[in-house]
Design goal:
The complex is a heterodimer of chains A (about 650) and B (about 400). Chain A has about 650 residues and is an alpha+beta fold. Chain A has 23 helices and 25 strands. Chain A has two domains: about 160 residues, Penicillin-binding protein 2a (Domain 2) (Alpha-Beta Complex); about 325 residues, DD-peptidase/beta-lactamase superfamily (Beta-lactamase, 3-Layer(aba) Sandwich), CATH 3.40.710.10. Helix content of chain A is about 35%, strand content about 20%. In chain A, the strands form eight sheets. In chain A, strands 2, 3, 4, 5, 10, 20 and 21 form a seven-stranded mixed beta sheet that branches. In chain A, strand 23 and strand 24 form a beta hairpin. Chain A starts with a helix and ends with a helix. With about 400 residues, chain B is mainly alpha-helical.
Chain lengths: ~650, ~400
């Protein structure tokens, strides 16, 4: 104390003055008052805004629920071969908001992404700066696992590396890429099915996504709830991998050697109308469904607008077998004859006279043989595909019955096949079905059908008269293989009697054996079938749709093959049904042994060859094709056709 | 004094050394109660820092006790420093040992200027203002030291020239230190404001309010207004405060009010707060009081306020009983420093005044602030130690 006195005497001379005491007391008073004010304010906030703020606190805590993707169900062929499956993959999610939350996170985080995920630095930085409020940007889909694990190993425990996480999702894989592409379909960018089964059964396949979310219970404790995703259901299709493969090979071969505008092939089991194979033009790669480089040469592709490309893709994805309609031509004659027989307006013993043309309602409608077929039995009228006989039969049947049977056989309405984009075709409505229209309709012109309609109608004749709804899926089952639903018995109605059916079958056998469809013959098998050739409108252009519906074996039909070729590229063959019949033969030859139907030996030859009696085989000239224009251009004005289709 | 010495001597001689008396001799009237309050406050702060920061520390640093642990180290260093300072006679600061002309206060002044220069050159910015000097892992904040410097300088100057303080010239002379304040205020308005109040209030305590004080206050008010108008974000904060409804709900103030409002009377329980989970940024620093309200309720907040009242009451009573003007003014300075920070902090977080960044003494996380405050409490303790006993007056 000596020290301070000697140092600064006047520091100590004065004690605490009155001024100081007053000043300090005032200051302490201010402090007490302020504290009182703050406490009042605390009560005020809690009583006035308490519940509102409490709710606000909880409201902003409710985290955005995070969906857990469900694994999409597989698609199998009828023997369990996987045609489509889903595989787990990882998406890279970038969270710019988290990265921008702290200054120091930016550089190390971007660096880690560049070094371990291989991203472009500028791109990442731009992305982050342009989306400061976003927390969820899917930057890369299906990142390979090695990079992800390297990144995780590096970032683990690093405080300054943030803003990237990996989301599990599923990748759709089609192991046979092009196989049955038009039947299976693909997934669009948001994971929903486009075209084919993927679209039609999207709800079954996609499963139920799971949800993980956080909430606060009554004690305001944070609770996390995870509802696991439910895997999608599996589809077991009626498609047979091997049949499909054979059919597609043959179609591709045909397109490569002969070529056509459109071609469709349906292979069906006639006993339940299940589709064994369905091929439509060129199959596309389901793993790259947007790639049209196969269709368009690269030099053209460069100059195509986006719209043109899109059109091209739509064309590529379209399933010709169910979406396109055409005039069926002579294949429909079978239906007309079957209807008339079933309605008892004609008998199997009836004969018909063909003079090469028939006058109907003032129109002169020609036969395919302009010199006339002479006198024909009912069987022969089918074998030789005589228009005049058919017109006579239709006239006997009458328009009401004809129209009724069109309906019975499923024409003019969708068959209900379990594929999207089915057309219903166009029939001449009953009120417009006059004498002339009835006559032309009898041999399958002036109305439009789809391939699957014809196939289903033929199946009903072949199996003895039961119309089944054509279908591609036979079973839906859960991921644990428990079956949810089956589609084995899809019988809808009786079309014709069994006796009618067996007569028609025999007639069709003879058509192949000795009629217009001889190229469809396969050695060692008894195959029945009917050809068809229809001239497209406008008639002057002489463009044709040729078709053939064949089935085998005749005694116990196991398979129906229906082929439609739209505008065969080879001009010499364009009006001939032989491309279709030959294609059918080549397909039959391979699929029958595969399906366990072997040539000769075990074939039961119980066909009544007596039916051939009275047929002068010399008359038949295989080179005079039935496909000669039977309806002349001047026959029916286009306006009438259009009116008919209103 | 002589008497007491003699008495002691006699007691030693008689072998009846009164232990109690001996302690009394060493500690004087050392204010143990003040020490206790500070310890309680620091412990309270330590707990709240852990509660408020474990989530964000884990999130950003994967180390949930990061801030808690750092504050613990700061207290482990600052506490003993406070005790040491409390045993250093505060008159030592005025001893002119450098060239016989300059004392420790002068030295501190120079150090402050150097630190401010350093902060300008190599300082690290936080939220747009340059306030820190990074020393390894520590972020040192020179403006905190400046507060102590201002207290000591003002107390020293005013008590030394108390006769001149009645005149404007005398008052103006001590404004030699004001440039530091202006430099700081440019970066950190609220700290500048505290320094300004210290610079005004300490002389006024000696001289009483004079005309020139009012003039200076007027000029300062105009300057403050200019500051607000020419600084976008400051003006924005003020305007925000006038229109609380239009305030962005993401703002710290609104989120802080949510925390206070959701606490109710008894709070959600220690550690159970939700607003610290990412909604209030750096809640363990300036906004810590909001989480006290959220977790401990109004009751907890009132207890904390009462602790501050007790602390300031102790400092106030020590100031009144100080043995000399210098000691009294040191206590007054520390009183103003702590009281202002508590008042500004509480008023900001409860939305009573516009938003500004001031830590809550002893409670908020922050090394520089806590160490400086502990040092100041050490000085107050030394003043208390030297309070003359009754009948033992200093002449």
């Amino acid at each position: 104390m000596k020290m301070n006195r000697s140092d600064e005497g006047n520091l100590t001379r004065r004690g605490v003055t009155r001024n100081m005491k007053i000043g300090l007391t005032i200051m302490f008073g201010i402090f007490v008052l302020t504290c009182g004010l703050v406490i009042v304010r605390l009560f005020d906030i809690n009583s006035e805004k308490g519940s509102e703020y409490s709710k606000a606190v909880l409201a902003q805590r409710s985290y955005r629920p995070r969906t857990i993707q469900a694994k999409r169900g597989s698609i199998l062929d009828r023997n369990g071969i996987i045609l489509a499956r889903s595989e787990k993959q990882y998406n890279v999610i970038i969270d710019p908001r988290q990265i921008l939350e702290r200054d120091y996170l930016m550089d190390p985080s971007v660096e880690a992404m560049v070094d371990y995920l291989g991203y472009d630095e500028d791109e990442i930085r731009t992305l982050i700066y342009n989306n400061p409020n976003s927390s969820y940007i899917v930057y890369e889909k299906n990142a390979d696992y090695s990079r992800i694990s390297e990144y995780n190993r590096y970032s683990n425990g690093k405080q300054r590396v943030a803003g990237v996480w990996f989301e599990e999702s599923f990748n759709r894989i089609y192991p046979y890429s092009t196989l049955a592409s038009h039947v299976i379909g693909f997934l669009n960018s948001d994971g929903n099915g486009s075209y084919g089964l993927e679209q039609y059964y999207n709800d079954e396949l996609s499963g139920v996504p799971g949800l993980s979310y956080t909430y606060f219970d009554s004690d305001l404790k944070q609770r996390k709830i995870v509802n696991d995703a439910v895997e999608g259901n599996e589809l077991v299709t009626t498609i047979d991998y091997n049949v499909e493969r054979i059919v597609e090979e043959k179609v591709a071969e045909f397109l490569d050697t002969t070529g056509a505008k459109n071609i469709g092939v349906i292979v069906m089991d006639p006993n339940d109308a299940s589709i064994l194979a369905m091929a439509s033009n060129r199959e596309y790669n389901l793993n790259e469904p947007r790639d049209i480089s196969e269709l368009v040469p690269a030099s053209e592709l460069m100059f195509m607008s986006e719209d043109e490309k899109l059109q091209k893709r739509y064309q590529m994805w379209k399933n010709y077998c169910i979406s396109d309609t055409y005039e069926p031509g002579s294949t429909f004659k079978t239906i007309t004859v079957a209807s008339a027989l079933d309605e008892n307006v004609i008998s199997t013993e009836d004969t018909f006279n063909c003079a090469g043309y028939t006058e109907v309602g003032g129109w002169r409608i020609g036969c395919n043989n302009k010199y006339g077929h002479g006198t024909l039995t009912l069987t022969q009228s089918l074998m030789k595909s005589c228009n005049c006989a058919l017109m006579e039969i239709a006239a006997k049947l009458g328009k009401d019955s004809f129209y009724k049977y069109q309906g019975k056989f499923g024409f003019g309405a969708k068959t209900g096949i379990d594929l999207p984009g089915e057309s219903s075709g166009i029939l001449i409505p009953l009120r417009n079905l006059n004498e002339t229209e009835l006559a032309t309709s009898s041999f399958g012109t002036t109305f439009n059908v789809t391939m699957v309609q014809i196939a289903a109608a033929y199946a009903s004749i072949i199996n003895g008269g039961t119309y089944y709804q054509p279908h591609v899926v036979k079973e839906i089952r859960r991921s644990d293989k428990t079956v949810i639903s089956t589609y084995n018995d899809m019988g809808v109605r009786q079309t014709i009697s069994e006796s009618t059916a067996s007569f028609i079958k025999n007639a069709l056998l003879l058509t192949v054996e000795n009629g217009t469809a001889t190229p469809a013959k396969v050695e060692g098998y008894l195959i029945g079938g009917k050809t068809g050739t229809a001239q497209k409108r406008p008639r002057e252009e002489k463009r044709f749709v040729v078709s053939f519906a064949g089935f085998a074996p005749i005694t116990d039909p196991r398979v129906l093959v229906y082929i439609v070729i739209d505008e065969v590229a080879d001009p010499e063959l364009s009006a001939s049904s032989s491309p279709a019949t030959r294609l059918c033969a080549s397909i039959m030859k391979e699929i029958l042994p595969y399906l366990g139907v072997y040539p000769e030996g075990d074939i039961d030859y119980n066909v009544d060859l007596e039916m051939l009696a009275g047929i002068d085989n010399e008359d038949y000239d295989p080179f005079v094709d039935e496909s000669n224009p039977y309806v002349l251009p001047e026959d029916l004005p286009d306006e009438e056709f259009d009116a008919a289709n209103e | 004094m002589i008497l007491s010495k003699r008495r002691m001597f006699l007691r030693i001689r008689s072998g009846a050394m009164d232990k109690k008396y001996h302690i009394r001799k060493v500690l004087g009237s050392y204010d143990m109660f003040l020490l206790l309050i500070v310890a309680v406050l620091c412990a309270f702060g330590l707990i709240m820092i852990f509660s408020t920061s474990y989530y964000s520390a884990d999130y950003y640093y994967s180390e949930s006790a990061r801030f808690h642990f750092r504050q613990l180290i700061i207290l482990a260093l600052g506490g003993p420093a406070m005790i040491v300072i409390s045993f250093v006679d505060y008159h030592v600061y005025t001893k002119k040992f450098i060239f016989g002309r300059f004392n420790l206060i002068h030295l501190l002044y120079v150090v402050c200027i150097i630190l401010l220069a350093v902060v300008k050159i190599i300082g690290e910015s936080t939220n747009g203002s340059v306030r820190w000097i990074p020393i390894g892992p520590i972020k040192f904040q020179p403006s905190e030291v400046c507060k102590t410097c201002f207290i000591l300088f003002s107390a020293y100057y005013t008590s030394k020239n108390w006769r001149m303080m009645n005149k404007a010239r005398g008052f103006a002379m001590q404004l030699i230190i004001a440039p530091i304040m202006i430099v700081i205020a440019k970066e950190d308005l609220s700290t500048g404001f505290i320094l300004g109040v210290l610079l005004m209030a300490i002389p006024i305590l000696v001289s009483g309010v004079r005309k020139y004080h009012l003039v200076i206050c007027g000029i300062a008010a105009v300057g403050l207004l200019g500051f607000l108008l020419f600084s976008d974000y400051r003006l924005e904060r003020v305007l925000d405060w006038f229109n609380p409804e239009k305030m962005d709900t993401a703002s710290q103030t609104v989120q802080g009010l949510y925390a206070i409002g959701s606490g109710d009377l008894f709070g959600k329980g220690l550690g159970e707060g939700l607003q610290k989970l990412g909604k209030i940024q750096e809640v363990h620093t300036d906004m810590i009081f909001t989480v006290v309200c959220e977790e401990l309720g109004i009751i907890g907040a009132v207890v904390l306020i009462c602790l501050f009242l007790a602390l300031l009451w102790k400092i106030y009573s020590i100031a009144l009983r100080a043995r000399d003007t210098f000691g009294g003014l040191i206590c007054a300075g520390v009183f103003i420093h702590i009281a202002l920070q508590v008042m500004i902090n509480l008023c900001v977080v409860t939305g009573l005044i516009p938003s500004t960044g001031i830590p809550l003494p002893f409670i908020s996380y922050g090394g520089s602030s806590t160490v400086v405050l502990l040092g100041e409490i050490g000085m107050v303790l030394n003043v208390s130690k030297q309070i003359p006993r009754e009948g033992e007056g200093d002449e």
